[in-house]
Amino acid sequence: MLPHILLVFCLTATAAWAQSSTESSSVAASDSSSVASSSSSGSSSSSNDSTQTESVLTFSQTLVTVSTPLPESFTGTQYTYASFNGQTTRNTSTATVESQNETSSASSTNTQITRTSTSESLTAIVGGGQTSSTGTASSTSTAPLPVNTQPCNGHVEFCNRSYGNITQVCAHNSAFAVKNNAGSNQQLGIEDQLNDGIGMLQGETHYVNNTIYNCHTSCDLLNAGTWQSELETVVSWLDRHPYEVLTMLIVNSDFTDVENYVPAIQNSGIERYLYIPPVTPMYREQWPTLGELILQGKRMIMFMDYDADVARVPYILDEFTHMTETAFSPQVADFRNCSIQRPPNLNQTFARTSLMNLVNQNLNTAVDLGALLGTDSTDAILIPNTADINTTNGQLDIEGQLGNRADLCVEEWDRAPNWLLVDYYNFGDPGPGSVFEVAARMNGVTYNRKCCGVASAGTTYRPSYFAAVVALVIAALHITMVELRKRPAAAAPAEAPAKKKAAPKKAAKDAEAPVAETADAKEDAPAPAAKPTKAGPPKEGDNIELEGFGGEVETHDGEKTTLSKLAQSSKSGVVLFTYPKASTPGCTTQVQLFRDAYDELTATGLVIYGLSTDSPKANTTFATKQNIKYKLLCDPKATLIQAIGLKKSPSGTTRGVFVVNKEGKVLAAEAGGAAATVEVVKKLVKTLGGDTGAEGVKKAEEKADAETGAGADGGDKVVADTAAAVADTAEKIDGAA
């Protein structure tokens, strides 16, 4: 019977593999030494022919660096900035170009516009399925609203979060992904960028022969095709991803009239997705949530740096009345501040409280344009400094890396950046995806996509293959276990008790006791005393000496204390969750999650504390504003934070959670996002069955030992665990192929 069933599942797996191989989009595995190349059309190549050397990338042109840095200031009459004279309510009667469902005088006079209007369907955000509906919700219904389980931009938390309160990665000159061209700023195309999690597409455009092109300085240097072709790629992606909200920042390099962009917008079909705000400018706290934008079907917000005119083209918003920028295209790796460069002469308080912000984390090198093009030009241009790209895009708390820069911006602005602009987003330190890890940390979530250049599992990543593999393994293991259970049980020799995870060693006299030990004897055995662990941060299962551990800290209301005192005053133990900085978006989310789950988390006697390097004043303000029931611990020298292994080097705090019981047993110790830290404690409370003392820990460990296969029902646990492990391995192997 077994061979026949295995044959059926093998055939199923083979068919699923063949089908997924033919249906999947081009997949390019990317690691720190091999990254997929991309054509200018936005489709990624499946060949991994780029080897990371000292300069990371190689180019076909001749590069001659210029010793004198190019000026970085934006001076000249062409650089104009709107004044902040309050907000204006949208007046539809004066707009030259209106929305898709309204009359457009531009479409009737501009011969470049060839597309006709189409209807738009609305998306529903309630369940896990990605379905659309052309109907509208009833405003008079009294039925309770369903709980949303559909992620927005990859996270359920974002559905109710304001567009102006989310950190996203911006691909600098996103269309400039031309292989072996020194003028490129990206290696992977638009499609891959969006799949990986790029939230803002930015790019330099030029108006040539009545057409907008994506060109770098000159179309002779790098021509990535028409802007309309880029928009068509984006529209196709938005059509297939109804729960994603994107941003586009147009660099109007020729300062051409904004209406020259209208034909490409209307011909590409992206106009139906463009959001038109009710007032201009929209201040940071006034933006709708991602969920609201998705429900409206307006999932693209478009900005232009210079010469936008919302009176004539209302869906192209002026950049600098909505956001600020740090220094653009720096040539020196000095990322030690987040000073605003544009717009100039801006009130700093107003900028921090009312405007969104973009951090330019791209390092450049000035090169001779004549040598690059093979002409006698004496001009110089800026191209990405690829020699230092891994450092520039790194997620670590090291000067010069994006992770460190983002934290500096939080300190200066009292909030996280909205956009992190980078070149070659798929490079970084410690590896690909580092830029997304930084954004996730700012948002208080965990990056959950596959980077880089690998289509995500939720879209085109061959789910049928994995399902078949898992089914095959489960069937085979289940049948094997059934057959084994049918066999008569052999007389089992006496054996030693199962080894417990991280359990203290028994005393010598215990080793002399009889090998066979009854369950009752185990139950009645006293809990081992806590022992100090070896040097280094304690891990789950370790025992620590509480006295003197981590030094002295202070509660936000001014009480000096230690971890030992906190543990002894608790009923069963202490939960310490760490956060980088009070009153920032990610940290606010974290304290709110612990606040909202407080009763559940403390029902077993655990006491909750937040822990950061903030001052008592900052934490008091934070605690009062968030109306929390627990205390926040102030650890300005990070002695306790370092002791539990959550201190960043050289400075800063890693978000995470540490749980220890009254006897010094470490129940949890790990870094994670805001939601993940709460889930660790919830899982711990559930696992211990309401008993977080030493006996509860012991019972939980014995329960875990029994579930590994020692008991009569252990086989099903082995089947489930093995199947999960095989599926995970298959996914990793396929992702590296």
TrEMBL record:
- Is Oxidoreductase given among the entry's keywords? yes
Among InterPro entries, the record links this protein to: AhpC/TSA (IPR000866), Peroxiredoxin_BCP/PrxQ (IPR050924), PLC-like_Pdiesterase_TIM-brl (IPR017946), Thioredoxin-like_sf (IPR036249), Thioredoxin_domain (IPR013766)
The chemistry this enzyme catalyses reads: a hydroperoxide + [thioredoxin]-dithiol = an alcohol + [thioredoxin]-disulfide + H2O
Task: Tell me which CDD domains the record gives.
Answer: PRX_BCP
Q: Where is it predominantly found?
A: nucleus
Q: Name one GO molecular function term.
A: thioredoxin peroxidase activity
Q: Where is the Thioredoxin domain?
A: 521-690
GO CC list: cytoplasm; nucleus
Listed under GO biological process in this entry are: cell redox homeostasis; cellular response to oxidative stress; lipid metabolic process
Bias type Basic and acidic residues, positions: 696-706
Compositionally biased, Polar residues: which spans?
90-122
Subcellular location as annotated:
Nucleus
Subunit comment: Monomer.
Q: Which family does it belong to?
A: Belongs to the peroxiredoxin family. BCP/PrxQ subfamily.
> What's the name of the protein?
thioredoxin-dependent peroxiredoxin
